[in-house]
Structures are given as structure tokens and as C-alpha cells.
Design brief:
Layout lengths: L1 H19 L3 E6 L2 E6 L8 H9 L2 E4 L3 E7 L3 E2 L7 E4 L5 E7 L3 E11 L5 E12 L4 H8 L2 H21 L4 H5 L3 H18 L2 E12 L2 H50 L3 H11 L6 E3 L5 E3 H4 L4
Antiparallel strand pairs: 1-2, 3-6, 4-5, 4-7, 8-9, 9-10, 11-12
Helix pairs in contact: 1-2, 4-6
Organism: Massilimicrobiota timonensis
InterPro entries: Band_7, Band_7/SPFH_dom_sf, Prohibitin
Keywords: Coiled coil, Membrane, Transmembrane, Transmembrane helix
Length: 299
Amino acid sequence: MTGIIIFILKAVLFLLIPISFIGFGIKKVDYDFTFKLNKKCLFSLIPLAVFILSSAVVIIPANSVGVRYSALNGTSKKTLDEGVHLIVPFVDKIYEIDTTTQERTDENLSVQTKDAQWISVETNVKYRVSEENAFKVYKGYKTLDNLNKNIIGNYAQDALNTVCSQYNVIDILGEKRNEIIEKTVALLSEKFENEGITLTALTLKDIDAGDEIEKAIKEEAVAKKQVETAEQNRLKAEKEAETKLIEAQGEAAANAAKTSQLTDEILMEQFIKKWNGELPKVTGSDGNIIDINGILGGN
């Protein structure tokens, strides 16, 4: 918007320049035309001076940088920050480049895996022009539209191809996905840096390997889960058996310790303490119960 206003002002000043020459009177003398300076109209030259001065000033708006192109020295590597700058009139030309975050989405990027499978990937790339290296963008592509059309999608696909060619399709769709994204981001960042661009985010929104492959992957995942469950059950059973064995060994050791401590004297002492004074009744060979206490004349 600022650039448009400045352009309009310069156009108005440029149109006022011819008017400034009204201050020069034309006088006819002997059929010859001569010019006579009208000193009172010298102030009419002010628009010309203002036009020249305005051509020496450029204003770079916020969130932008200016790339200077000189008719004498070509493109300058030093960019102009936002604000007011002096340039050489009619020699320098300033190109404004937006440095805010840009975005590109590609829905069907086809890449090949290590096991010769083709997958379709939807990518979203967020990037912005580097303030220091914006001259590379101008020299290579002139505008952000050209950059977005010719570079961003192609570089994203090339980086994905390079990384995915190192992995099988099952790894890409499964546990290696985050690792693949990290490697792609590193490679794409390097490619962008060479073009004067900074990668801010890469998102893989969808990876489609086809119905048959995805079905096979799901079946493999189910089988793998079953194996993991069986292994967990086996380890659990082994743990329980081990626990029981330890408990049994501990109980046997405790009983053995108790038995080793029982002597004849201790057993007799325990018997005497627990005896109620009655003699036991025993069973004879014919099955009759004999009361020993009665035989001995006890009560």
C-alpha cells in the first residue's frame, strides 16, 4: 500500500514538471522565437526538485525486506530492512519481498519405498524468506509466486523420495514414521537454505499405500499383538511358577530348621506340658478299646 501511494505521488510530481516551464515566456522577435526567463515563476521548478528527491528515497514496509538492483553493479547481497532508505535516483531499483510465513499443500506426492512400493503422501510445507538471503530468491525467482510454484512442492517431493527409499512401506506407515519426518525436515531445510528460504514446519497429513498393503499391515499388526500377548502370558506364568517355587522352598527350609531344633528332651518336655494326666486308650487285636487307665486302677 505504501509503495502505491509513493508511486502516485511521483506520478503527480512528474505531471507537474511540464507545468513548471510555464514560467518561461515565449516572445516573438523578428519572426524568431526566443525564450525569456520569468524570474517570478522560478518556484514552479519546485515539483521537479521534489520528484528527483523522492526518487532517492524508498520506504520498506513491515514484514518485508528490500532487494537493491543497480544498473551499474547488479543485485546487491545486502538487503534493506523495514524503514526509510536512500538510494541512487534512476540507477537503483528496489524490489520488496514479503518475509511472513508462506504455505503450500500438495495432496498427492508419489514416492517409492525401499521395497519398491509406491505411496501417496499429502504434505503441508510452511516456510518464509530469510531476511539475510532474500537476494537469492529475487535472483532465482523474482517473486514468491514463482518460488512457490517451481520450488517448494518439487523440493518436498525430492526430500521425501530420498528418505523413503531407505525404508520399507511397513516401517513408513508404522513405528518409523516420526523418524522419517525428522530426516525429511533436516534434508528439506538444507535444500531451502541454499535458496534463501527457512523451513518452519513440515506436516505429513496422510500417507496412502493402497487398500491391499494397508490390509496386510493391519493383519501383521494383529498377529504381532497376539505374539506379544502370548509372550506376556508366558512370562506371567513363569513368574507365578517361580514365585510358588520360592515360597515352597522357603516353607521347606523353615520346617527343616524347626525339625533340626527338636531333641528328645524337648519333645518329652512338650509332651509333659500338654499331658492331661490320662493314659491313652488303645485298640486291641479284636477291635475292642482297652482303657489302660482303668486297668491300672485309675479313676
